[in-house]
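I can't quite decide. Please look over this sequence plus structure tokens:

:::
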Amino acid sequence: MRPPRAALVIAAVAALLLLLLAPAARADDGGCGADGAAAPRGGDRARARALKIAAFFSILVCGALGCCLPVLGRRVPALRADGDVFFLVKAFAAGVILATGFIHILPDAFEKLTSECLPAGGPWKDFPFAGFGAMVGAIGTLVVDTVATGYFTRLHFKDSAAAAATAAVSAAAVGDDVEKQQQQATAAAPHAGGSDDHEGHVHMHTHATHGHAHGSTALVAAVGGGEGDKEHALRHRVIAQVLELGIVVHSVIIGISLGASEEPGTIKPLVVALSFHQMFEGMGLGGCIVQAKFKLRSIVTMVLFFCLTTPVGILVGIGISSVYNEDSPTALVVEGILNSVAAGILVYMALVDLLAEDFMNPKVQSRGKLQLGINVSMLVGAGLMSMLAKWA
């Protein structure tokens, strides 16, 4: 799955989520929780609308800032992908993503799938569907991660072998041409001395070697670097695409919930909390994009998808706010299952693909101060994101 195709898949998933959530949360699904609630006044609606517009631009700007910092930081020596600061920033962002899965999304999934508004005769109170969804999300991510990485690796080695064979044929052709030219030169000058013969031999050997070196250089340029660098970049491309997929799932839900809310007291703290949430998540995704070494077009596409998902969800929520009931059974089931799967995806990505990979990096393992630094950075990120659960 190449980057443009992956972007289409992510767009399709986002559109599917919007189609599922928009009609699912209708007020005529039972109306649980709506009886005792007073209808919002006109002033509250106007204030809520203003806060939603502020949330739209705040989340958009903060998401773009967080995602673009690591990408633009490639031009800053201190923020290069192999620098110490980059390890610290990525560990901080991974801690944020880990806390997002455990503290924000998974508890919300349990709350929705065990709500009193769900039918008493259904299976929702007899089985922990939220934990099951998280497990399915984590296992599914593992399968996609390993299968995609294996596919890219086999494809890469196949292309490398073909390029090497082409380079070898080119080098042999150059050597044959040089040998023919040398034989013609020898036939034209049969009385030349031994030293001249030796010089001709050296000349032929040098040209053949030059042709071989030229073919090797072309091979390295064709695959985009050395073998290790190419495999590393392919691995991070898979990580970046799967991580963005997990982020898109819960970002759509967050946006629709915020846009459909009519309570200013609920929306106001969410604006600040979700802005920081989006910025920190963007830093983690941006770090993966940098290490994946995408082309400019793919980078722009992935950054735009990340930045626009939650704001577009807010717009959809505003559009369906008149018929939206977050306590309807259908809405609770759909949001609960999607949240649990998203939590499993993010927890797996944070632990396996972000933290474990960097913590086991030989550069980190050989330097005690850097190892301590990324541990502290991870804990700070997880701690700050956990504190935001008080408001969001």
Observations:
- Residues 54-163+227-391 form one domain.
- The chain has one domain: 54-163+227-391.
